[in-house]
Amino acid sequence: MKSDALGKIKDFLVSGGFSTFEYPRGCFDIAARRERLLLLKVLTNIDSFQKDQAKDLKLLSKFLSSSCFLLGEKTRRERLNDSVIYERFGVPAMTIDTFTSVVDGKYPGKFRARGGTFGRIDPNELKRYRKKNNVTQSDLADKLGVSQKRISEYESGEGSALLNMVRALEELVGGDIRQGVNPFEMEADVQTDKGKEGEISQRLADLGFRTGHVKRAPPRLLVRSDSTVLSRVMDTKRDENNIPSLVEFSKVSGTDVFIITEDRKDIESVPCIRKNRLDEIEDSKELLSIIEEKKRSA
Predict the structure, then answer these.
(1) Tally of domains within the chain
(2) Among 66, 119, 194, 271, fewest CB within 10 Å belongs to which?
(3) Whose CA is closest to 88, among 107, 105, 69?
(4) Are residues 155 and 200 in the same domain?
C-alpha cells in the first residue's frame, strides 16, 4: 500500500539526516533535504502518473535546483526490477530499494526507456581495453558490427547502448564495462506555464524575474532571479488554508516565500504584497528587499 511505502521512505530519510515535508495531495508526496533537495512522488503503479503531474514536478524541481523521482512497485504490465532506472514523462522512476541505493551513491547499471533496456559504457574502461590490446576503434567496431563513430561516442561518454551491445562488449573485454546510471544527472526539458496568474506573472517578469506556475504544490507561483522565491496569489479561504503548507515547504526547500493579496497586510508572519503595490515596484531587487524587510519586522 502507498501508506506503507511512504512510511518506509520517510523512515529511511529521517534516519539518514534529511529534513522532510509531506504533501500527499500534490505533484510530490515528500520533499526531503540534506545537501540537496529531493522531490518524491510515490505510487504503487507508476503508469498512473499523469503528464500534468510530471510537468508540475519537473518545473518545481527546475526552479528549486532539486532532483525529482517517481517511486513505485509496478507498471500495468510488470513489476519494477531493482537496480533499474525507468522513466515516466521525463521523470526518473524506480523501486524504493533502488532509490535508497541511489541516495547511498550506488547507481544502477541499466535503465529502461522507449526502444528497450540500455546501459552506459564506462569510456575509461573501453579506452583502457583498446590500448592494452592494441585494438583500434575501427577494429572494435568491426567485431561488434557497429560504426567507428559509435565506438567514438562510447569513448567520449556521449552515448548509451542497448543492453545486448553492453553485454557483447563485456564478453569481448572479459569483464564489467558498465558505468552506473546516475539519476541525479537525468534532466528533462520542461516549459513554464503562467496559468491563471498570467497578469501577475507578466508583471513579475517585467521586474526581471523568471516565473513559472504549478497547480499541485504548496506554491502556485515560482519566481526566480538569483534564487527562487515561492509565492501564492491569495483570493479565497482555500488559498489561505494552504499558507501553513507553503511556509513549511519553504523551510525544507530553503527558499523565501511571500503572498500576493488584494488588501491583507499580514498572514501568519508571511510577507504580503498587495497586487496594486506590484505596479509601484521598479525591479526585482526592490521586491526582494521589501520581502526581506517584512521578514525582519514580522
Answers:
(1) 3
(2) 194
(3) 69
(4) no
Asked if residue 154 and residue 64 are part of one domain, the reply reads no
Whole-prediction pTM value? 0.88
Length of the chain: 298
User: Domain end: 73, 108, 143, which one?
Assistant: 108
Segment holding 157, helix H or strand E: none
List the Cα angle 258/65/114 in 5-degree steps.
Answer: 130
Nearest to 178 by CA among 71, 98, 260, 83: 83
297 burial type by CB count under 10 A (0-12 exposed, 13-18 middle, 19+ buried):
exposed
Residues 257-289: tens digit of each pLDDT:
988 888 766 676 788 888 888 888 988 889 888
Range of the domain at 79: 2-108
Distance CA 286, CA 112 (A): 47
Query: Minimal CA–CA distance to 27: which of 193, 224, 270?
Result: 193
Q: Are residues 139 and 83 in the same domain?
A: no
Regarding whether 157 and 255 lie in a shared domain, the answer is: no
| Residue range 197-215: mean pLDDT, rounded | 88
**Where are the strands (E) in 2-121, listed by range?**
19-22, 30-33, 37-42, 67-71, 84-88, 91-94, 110-113, 116-121
Q: Is 180 helix (H, G, I), strand (E, B) or coil?
A: coil
Structural domain ending residue among the three candidates 108, 134, 149: 108
CA angle 247, 252, 253 (to 5 degrees): 95
Q: What is the pLDDT of residue 67?
A: 95
State the pLDDT at residue 266. Answer: 63
**Where residue 56 falls among pLDDT bands split at 50, 70, 90?**
very high
Tell me the C-alpha distance between 41 and 10, whole Å.
Answer: 12
Rounded Cα gap, residues 99 and 106, in angstroms: 9
Distance CA 87, CA 93 (A): 5
